Amino acid sequence: MEETETDNTKREWYTLSEIATHSERGRQAVYIAIVTGKLKAKKIDNRWVIKMSDFDDFKSRKYQRWIKKPDGQNLFDGENFFSLPQVIEIFSLKLGCKYSYSQMYYKVQTGQLKASRQGATWIIKKEDLQKYLSQEQKELDGNLDQALL
């Protein structure tokens, strides 16, 4: 964070926007970290403020969805449960076409791909993934057959 010319001492509290700029993360990402309890903050006059020491603690933990463990149990074991980024990777390998995160998120939001929410994370069960993969494969095959006619 930049210091002001009139204040040569480091400040204790920073706004959500300042933390987002300093960390090269979006405001939304910082906000989600706050509301999910991953980053300590307090609200003063309708603004979130964060101590730099709390932000440093948050950075050192480097929350990763790949290894998130509620109650000591992996959410994404790669066998029965998958995260959205893992599903995108699987789709790319199995179907041979690359899906963006927003495309896959749209499929989840519209109910095309069944998923459940745990905290800020989407979880896709293996059986739901297999069912949707087979539907997508049939659709791709049908489109290819039409293109060849």
What are the key terms here?
three-stranded antiparallel sheet; elongated; disordered N terminus
Q: What average pLDDT do the residues reach?
A: 78
- Taking the alpha carbons of the first and last residues, their distance comes to 62 Å
Share of β-strand residues: 5-15%
Spatial shape: elongated
Radius of gyration: 21 Å
Give the structure's gist in a few sentences.
With about 150 residues, this protein is α+β, with helices and mostly antiparallel strands. The chain is about 50% helix and about 15% strand. It folds into two domains: about 15-65; about 65-149, no CATH class.
Detail the topology: elements first, then pairings.
Elements: E1 13-15, H1 16-23, H2 27-35, E2 42-44, E3 47-51, H3 52-61, E4 81-82, H4 84-95, H5 101-109, E5 116-118, E6 121-125, H6 126-148
Antiparallel strand pairs: 1-3, 2-3, 4-6, 5-6
Helix pairs in contact: 1-2, 4-6
Commentary on this structure:
This protein is an alpha+beta fold. It has two domains: 13-63; 66-148, no CATH class. Helix content is 48%, strand content 14%. It has six helices and six strands; from the N terminus they run βααββαβααββα. It has helices spanning 16-23, 27-35, 52-61, 84-95, 101-109, 126-148; strands at residues 13-15, 42-44, 47-51, 81-82, 116-118, 121-125. The strands form two sheets. It has a three-stranded antiparallel sheet with strand order 1-3-2. It has a three-stranded antiparallel sheet with strand order 4-6-5. Strand 2 (42-44) and strand 3 (47-51) form a beta hairpin. Helix 1 crosses helix 2 (27-35) and helix 4 runs parallel beside helix 6 (126-148). It is elongated. It starts with 12 loop residues before the first strand and ends with a helix. Residues 1-6 have low confidence and may be disordered.
